[in-house]
Please model this.
Amino acid sequence: MIRFEHVTKQFPDGTEALKNTSLVFPTHKLTVVIGPSGCGKTTLMRMVNKLEKPTSGDIFIDEKPITDLEEVQLRRSIGYVIQRIGLFPHMTIAENVSLVPRLLEWPKEKTDRRVEELLELVGLEPEIYKERYPLELSGGQQQRVGVVRALAGDPNIILMDEPFSALDPISREQLQDDLRNLQQEIRKTIVFVTHDMDEALKIADTIVVMRDGEVEQVGTPQELISNPANDFVKSFIGLDRINRQRSFGERKLKEFLAVFGEVPREGALQISGEATIDDAFSEMEKSGHPYLQIVEAGRTLAYVSDRDLVKAALQKQEGEKV
Amino acid sequence: MRNFFDTLVSRQDMIQTAFMEHIYLSFVAVAIGIALALPTGIIIARYRRYAEPVIGVTAVFQTIPSLALFGFLVPILGIGSPTALIALIIYALLPILRNTYTGITGVDGSTIEAGRGMGMTRTQILRQIELPLALPFIMAGIRTATVLTVGIATLATFVGAGGLGDIIYRGLQSYNNSLVLAGALPVALLAIGFDQILKWIEKRTTPKGLKN
Model:
């Protein structure tokens, strides 16, 4: 577990990258830190392995303050994947992957075995790729190597700084899936920084939404969508995604007033605008009424037939395609 | 042409001695130049605010005409090989220094960031990442310095330090073109020879992963 306690980071030029932030990254979970650029998310992550030092506040790893830990040793015990991959072009894939084991002075056989095991883990045939150089690999393959290189020293914690953002969409999707599957297996404490909400929703156990050096909300993807804490979170997730998340039948009748007519109908059954589409259908069926009269606070809002409901569904679906 | 070969044969001993002196001067100057410029280059690549002034100073030295520099040094240091060597070293500094600096600062920042983040010490980053990746540049600088030095070393004769300049100068004094050629040709061959050897080394030192 990584715990931030009242951590503030002020840069020499006066900008506050992080304002009195307290936060927990739970063990064995993949926590995504997301926010617009300049929100302090990368600074936050880089503090975990002491690439940045807090101006005030404390950071604990498994309840040990990291100020007690020697910085080089600490970094060797934490996996680190950066956005621009950062493979060493003059070293073979095997040499790249084995860097941390070599720094830790593992015996050679153990290191070799580890390299092969890791390359296999991400689907790179060791016999083919071990002796190749990074520039001979595609971007997606390179970042796979970047990811396993971070795993090589068998760290409990892995920091990933927008690792997939420089890749083409197909490789990106693929690597996101791979990371998700990999995490089922390795169960590390992962801190993953991104600005891509789709990515966050896809891979996260927990999402931390940040803005201007402050945490706006912490929650599971589902919690964020169903219950965004404020307008910023809502707009950052995107109304689109929030709506898409609910199926059509769970929507409220009053969301579709624009589609419905106001012409009074005989023999309509009164129903609240808060009722869902599903409710409306079942009420109609039960009562046999051909129309529903949507009312709210004593005012009639619209009259609808079952055809109108279907029309609403169709129109909404078209709207979503746009 | 006959004349030239006759000269080569008759002055064989003198040419040979001058040739060896020339190699000695060039080699020692470049070696000391590397010993001074390489560490300096590494240091200014680390403390970049000093880079401009340091490179600036060596660049100013470079602009002094070589004959004038030899002339300046004589009143201070007297005549002889040390004076010639110091002048040659001064000229060798700039290419090596600048290329070392450019080479190291040109290393992709993300590789260094990755190294740091994975727990490499500063020395490990320098030795395992920065220097190997900068080596082709550094070697190119050494090559330039060597060729330059071999050429300028012909002026060592004016401070009494010998070298192939002796033969050329003697030829000029006695209007003996064959003798001038007997001095100049070995200088050219020496420069080309050194260049080829260093080019080969440069190729060998280019990290495999960077070759296309």
The first helix of chain A runs from residue 41 to 48. Chain A touches chain B through 31 residues (CB under 8 Å). Chain A has a mean pLDDT of 86. The radius of gyration of chain A is 26 Å.
